[in-house]
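Build the 3D complex.
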Amino acid sequence: MYPEAAQLKDRERELHHFQLRVGIAALAVLAAFAVLFARFLYLQVVQHEQYAARAEENRISIVPLAPNRGLILDRNGVVLARNYSAYTLEIATWRLRDLERTLAELSEIIDIQPRDRSRLKRLVSDARNAESLPIRTRLSDEEVARFAANRYRFPGVEIKARLFRQYPFGETAPHVLGYIGRISQRDQQRLEEAGVDANYRGSDFIGKAGIEASYQDDLHGTTGFEQVEIDAGGRAVRTLSRTPAQPGNNVTLSIDMRLQRVAEHAFHGRRGALVAIEPATGSVLAFVSSPGFDPNLFVDGIDPANWAELNNSPDRPLNNRAIAGVYPPGSTFKPYMALAALEAGKRRYNSTIVDPGYFEFGGRRFHDSKKGGNGVVDLYKSIVLSSDTYYYMVANDLGIDAIAGFMKHFGFGARTGIDLDGESTGVLPSPEWKTKRFRQREQQKWYAGETISIGIGQGYNAYTPVQLALAVATLANNGVMFRPRLALYVDNLRTGERRYFEPQPVRQVPVKPEHLEFVKRAMAGVNREGTGRRAFADAQYTSGGKTGTAQVVGLKQGERYVESKVAERLRDHSLFIVFAPVENPRIALAVLVENGGFGARAAAPLARMVLDYHLLGKLPEALAPEPEEPEAEEESD
Amino acid sequence: MDSALQQVRRFSASAVEGLDATLLFATVALAAIGLAALYSASFDAPSRVTGQVANLAVAFAAMWLASRVRSELLMRAALPIYLLGFVLLVGVALYGETVNGARRWLYVGVTRFQPSEMMKLALPIMLAWFFARNEGALKFRDFAIGAVLVALPVLLIARQPDLGTAVLVAAAGAYVIYFAGIGWRIIASVGALGVASLVPLWGLLHEYQRKRILTLLDPTQDPLGAGYHTIQSTIAVGSGGAFGKGWLQGTQAHLEFIPERHTDFIFAVFSEEFGLLGNCILLAFYTLLIGRGLVIAAQAVSFFSRLVAGAVTLMFFTYAFVNMGMVSGILPIVGVPLPFVSYGGTALVTLFLGVGILMSLRRQKRLVPG
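Done.
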């Protein structure tokens, strides 16, 4: 039948069309697979090396191993700074999408205080680069367990066992030890400039102040490295190779911690400073800047509240007064003035004046602190009784250039080179200094009247307590000056090698030995029969001292200083310098009590306590382990 | 005894009667490759392998059943299944369960169910039935209605959003229309229109949407975000080299740099460990499978059978090409599994049902017109 045949023909044609389309589809499939094959060929053969390297990079991570920080010990081996291990919860903030949400979720299982958050915020803004930052330190075992069970919920958050710095003596000697803190962007910059940043790859902390800062290179050690295989979550799967870290060196100080505690106790919280030096070596035996602070606060990043409290306190506890504070030396300057006069031939031992209680110069009356004067005064008595009139005249006779020229031998107005950062130079006044100091022609000029008060340690005189201590130590050591040092030696734990810091002589002060002897004898007289006699009554050793009282505010001419009328902060500073025993001095120290009034009253008894302990082992009552000790009873009268 | 043996023989002969040796060989080989790759990818959860074996058992049973279904039954079921699927898709849009930000699942009795999955087969069967009704006299109007039949479910699926499934369903529909004989001129003009509409469409997009598309083109722009998958899977493939790192030796997979390594990115695991050689073998099996499917389509008796066979076969191709293309970094990432290889029961059942349908279509003897 025709229609049937036509239908059949249609179907044949249709089938033919369909098969054509199937063929085209087959070709398209082959073409697409060819494209895939070309892509595989490109990735797996042409670019294989590059992708293999990237897979390795993915897989292998170089993990720096931070070295354990060296310990700090006192001269008797007492540990002053140590490390302890604690669990911290750390966040790799750069890996998180939403820090706030993560913190909110974390605080459901771990106690996170607002202060932890604000501290973290500070750390984030201060962080040197991508590193994980602690949100909580010192986790309890229970918290560690709770987090471990929930770890999968917090990628980028990990518990780490970290070593923390601890200062077991807390507020004792904080200005000596200093503290460590997180490496800031500025520290990082400094490390890069010094070319040592590679050694700090694994380190989070760096010394910020005190010995921790000045012996940073020794204490830090050498960073080790570990090649680890990591997974996509950044977690170490296994270790491939390992170069262990080398711990930092232990630093042993010349400080005697017991003496240090006696000295700090003696301050009773008053503001001031004390530096005690072993004259024959320059070793620092005690170093106080009062009030102190607890360096432990700084270890894992100080929280803003504590920081504000320390920083805003009117007592400036963070200020290291012993090396950075500058004060007029007051009458403690007189022994050096006497020496200067003897050396210049301007005075002899028997040079005598009759002291009316003042010295007149250029129509101005310079008063003696003793009303009516001391009568007939020779050189010996001028020191023992601390005659101002005598030294007004000495200064006038010497002239400012001779004074400045002599005093610089004793280190006045120059950094002592003690092994701490942040030392001030102070001011040794001279016409040259004044020219440099002031801008206006009028002010640059040196007036002869200004020389007069220099003679009694007032005027422009301004020295750090460590300079005063170094000067008296040099005097005690017969004019041989040793650079003051806090560190005795450094121990390399790996090699067992001990590196001593040899006493470093700075200079021999050009003075005749007999002149020195005379001044030392006069200073012994101070403590025996002069201004220091009350403080050193019944001392079982000989000592040579000199009291000093430094004016905080200049008095108008004719005005007398009456302590009770002056606000506490404006009262005179109390100073005392001393060495003992006189024959063979083992210790020399300078002590300053801010606004303490007369030197004989505040500073001298404080010095006595330190000497009593150092020379006799006698503890002040409050620190005595046994109250029935006979020495302690004796002291109470 | 003799007769008992004969009975067994006769029974087993009838049981395998509908199966196609070539298709069976290709799918079993691909499934075996899948198990090997899955074993390597499942070092942290070995139960996935046994789970996949169970999935395969179910899928083979489904294939066997489908291979025994006659095409007349398929034609009769075409419209009801399509309508059911469509209603279920609407149900998902209204009452669906949201998992990972996408509303794809429908809770049916005791189990969750993905209606979009069944559309992968229901749509081509429906279209084939629709075109077969007007066999020999297809007009532009028929193709336009066909396009609407495709567009409705595709839009619902894309809205969920499930771009991968939408692409596959749309492709399946497009293949039926292509095989039904739509004019080349229409294909060309639709293509041209599509390209031309890209420019104004680009202007309508939000800034973040544009950025997302740009990231698809250049993954290095967002290495930790959207580009991460592509970068890591490309590294896995490239580092595999010519012969691979060896089974269970892939560092990208074992250190978890490859995301979704059991499912959509299992090809990266395989490719890292077996290299270019393994990829070629995999491509060969897919070529065998697709080639056999096209031959079945070309030899099929009825218009309906041809359309279904051709579309289902090309859908397998689409699966394989899109998946390998996205893992090797030449196609944007859409959620398409590697057919017969990726872990996952639902997709596996759909694919094996497709193979079973191919087998059943082959069985029909070509009628000699008389």
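The interface with chain B takes residues 7-8, 10-11, 14, 17-19, 21-22, 25-26, 29-30, 32-33, 35-37, 39-41, 43-45, 47-48, 50-52, 54-56, 58-59, 229-233, 237 of chain A (CB under 8 Å).
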